[in-house]
Amino acid sequence: MPVMRPLIRHFASIPRADLLIGAAIIVIGTVEALTVAPAYGAADDPEIWWIGQALVTGVLLWYRRKHPVAVFILMILAQYAWHRQGNEGCQVWQFAALCIVFHTVGSHLPAKPGAAWALTGILIFDSGAVDHRVLPLDEVIFLTVSFGLAYVTGISLRGYLVRVHRMAERAALLEVERERRAAEAVAAERARIARELHDVVAHSVSVMVMQAGVLRRSLSRRNDQSEGHSGGHVAEVLAGIEQAGRDAVDELRVMLGALRMPQDEALPQPGLDMVGNLISTVGASGPRLSLAVEGEPVRLAPGLDLSAYRIVQEALTNAVKHAGPAEVRIRIAYQGDALELEVADDGRGAACELSTGNGLIGMRERAELFGGSLDAGPLPGGGFRVQARLPLARGVSMSEVAG
């Protein structure tokens, strides 16, 4: 059974149409060998060795697509050997097989070499070199027309298949272009909405915050002068309104940044809490990895959390790929008003070979999207460092969330 499996796989790789054509040639040749051999000039009936001739011809047709020139030549040689045995006529299955290989030369070879092989084959048959005799004019015309038409049908099939292939490629390109334009239209609309929200909502809230701040400071001065208590209460309310407005502006800025991001990043995405999993995933790649978290972690806005994770991921991937057998240090520092990210290695990382996305450009764009900055470059003692600083709004500490 194990010996049969490679044979079965081999037959499975042959086109089914060729298997059927070859089998039909073998069957017809066998039937003629056992029944009408004398009609073709055979001395015996049946002529058993003709079955081998049919078998060889059928097997050759199985490989006509993979090796059209080789099969074409072998078929002519087989026909030559047939007539060398003293057989005057050409059997039906032999003539059909010859027409099939002329068709294959036209359908599976480029125009110039295909035409050269077809013309060579026609001249060989017309000259009588295969039959070992001078052919009459009517037989020459018959062979020329038959083999020529078989070759022309092959050319027609090849032209049709080429047109179908080109149309399929064009349809695929048009589909890609349509999807690209649709994505661009969606991105443009998202950017337009972000601009309108920034121009209208953010401006209005900022004006409200400014007015509340002016009024609060004015009431505070009056309260200090008059030492009244009602004014102090109003000032506290205005301070709350001012702070709420500032928080709203910060949150709106984060949401607008997320709106400008690629659409696929609008779905639930990892954050800085997944950096530990990232380290365990890439830790077996070579460098020694260490993670240090400084300060009290705060809950970040989803867009900011995602961008921070992507910056660490990109810098870590670059270090793993280019630093060699080095130590890679990851530092996440919560500094009250800012989040600082640092990925440094003591290997030979290169700034020009950042691996995923747009490398340094992509990381810098992510940082600047949230009003931050990114610095990257080689270290004096060797190695490479990527450092990003992202401003934070008034966040909620993780301890408060746990409580």
From TrEMBL:
The keyword Acyltransferase does not apply. The chain crosses the membrane at residues 20-41, 140-161. Pfam families: HATPase_c, HisKA_3. SUPFAM superfamilies: ATPase domain of HSP90 chaperone/DNA topoisomerase II/histidine kinase (SSF55874). InterPro entries: HATPase_C_sf (IPR036890), HATPase_dom (IPR003594), His_kinase_dom (IPR005467), Sensor_HK_TwoCompSys (IPR050482), Sig_transdc_His_kin_sub3_dim/P (IPR011712). Keywords: ATP-binding, Kinase, Membrane, Nucleotide-binding, Phosphoprotein, Transferase, Transmembrane, Transmembrane helix, Two-component regulatory system. One of its GO terms (molecular function) is protein dimerization activity. One of its GO terms (cellular component) is membrane. It catalyses: ATP + protein L-histidine = ADP + protein N-phospho-L-histidine. Its EC number is 2.7.13.3. Residues 310-394 form the Histidine kinase domain. This is histidine kinase. It comes from Planotetraspora thailandica.
